[in-house]
Amino acid sequence: MSDENQSPENAEANGIDDAADVAALKAEMAEMKDRMLRALADAENTRRRAERERSDASQYAVTGFARDMLGVADNLRRALDALPAEILEAANPQLKAVIEGVEATERGLLSTLERHKVKIVDTSGKFDPNLHQAIAEVPGNGIPAGNIVNVVQTGYVIGDRLLRPAMVTVARAGDAPAPQGGVDTQA
Questions:
Q1: CB-based contacts of 124: which residues, under 8 Å, 6+ apart?
Q2: In whole angstroms, what is the distance from residue 103 CA to residue 107 CA?
Q3: Which helix (H) or strand (E) element contains residue 148?
Q4: Which residues are registered as beta bridge partners of 34?
Q5: Percent of the chain with pLDDT over 90
Q6: Do 66 and 95 reside in the same domain of the chain?
Q7: What pLDDT was estimated at residue 70?
Q8: Measuring CA to CA, how many Å separate 26 from each of 21, 29, 32, 39, 115?
Q9: Cα–Cα distance measured from residue 68 to residue 163, given in angstroms and rounded to the nearest whole number
Q10: Predicted pLDDT of residue 1
Q11: Mean pLDDT to the nearest integer, 127-149
Q12: Which of 4, 21, 72, 137 is deepest in the core (most CB within 10 A)?
């Protein structure tokens, strides 16, 4: 049966079918467009996440090694701090050369760490629990309560992450003058 021989009722029924088909195709097209946009957004999110992870991996790749090297830096500083000033002044030239060598080694190590974005935590001023670890509250002797009095161990950050907190003593609130004999009976 040809299209010319169709009855008006059949043509009208085909028109309804054609309209229904068009509507179904439009709905399918809208669904496919939505799926495509979601897939593109997912691909873009994956690309951004991979870029961020690559950046973090390169920036923080030395974290384990840097943490291990902090012990070396601590030992160099302890060795230098253990020498009384009077020994330094009276030291013979060979001993002075050794001390200068240890100082140069410490400077070189700290410089190398800094080149890899490992920096010393600032311990001047107010205690920050995100960067400092308080090991004791002590008489402030004129330092405002909550401020750092003494640094027991240097802290370090790598990039914007804490590598090791600075171990510090903090001025006590409502502090009375230290008792005679240097013993703190309030602790």
A1: 148
A2: 6
A3: strand 148-153
A4: none
A5: 56
A6: yes
A7: 93
A8: 8, 5, 10, 20, 59
A9: 11
A10: 47
A11: 91
A12: 137
